[in-house]
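Z., the sequence and structure:
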Amino acid sequence: MTDNYVTVFDLVSHPERINPSYVFFALFISAGLVCLGITISKSRHERKIYWVWGIFSVFFLTFSSIAAIYDASWAFDARHRVENKTFHEVEGCLDVFHPGSEYSSRSEDGREYWAIGGQRFEYSVGDVRNGYHRPEAADGFVHADSRIRVAFVPSYLSGGKEIVRLDVIQHACPAAPDPGPPGI
């Protein structure tokens, strides 16, 4: 059965691809710097008090910087785990499967999740992450009747698991039940 797996996502062979979301956080930090610059400029030239914008700018910039550092820390840790082969792996038929939306969604109903061997995986199209995050509705490879072999690292950012390799055999198992969106 192992020989029939098709690898559909693989960061294990290319750990150098596990990087922080540089562009994503650069946009937020840049926005904070621009807002702070405008605030300082306006308050100097117009002699008005722009303290609300100043406080907002400082908090926004601080939050964005901390989030960027946290993301970079996780990405380098994940890369280290993959390079040293200290990731976890589980294989088998799905215990449960809830298909996600083909559109970016933060709602519970729009997120795809499935469980295998007591490990739960959850993701959405709009996730900004290195790991696999393509739901079935967006031409994803995991279906209710798939046999899966998945390698993952824990994510302290999301509290879940980041998929670093996904091997699939389509239509190899009975369809897993859909318990509905989480929280129901």
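The beta strands are 6-10, 88-93, 96-98, 112-116, 119-123, 147-154, 161-169. The chain has a mean pLDDT of 84.

Let me know what you think.
H.
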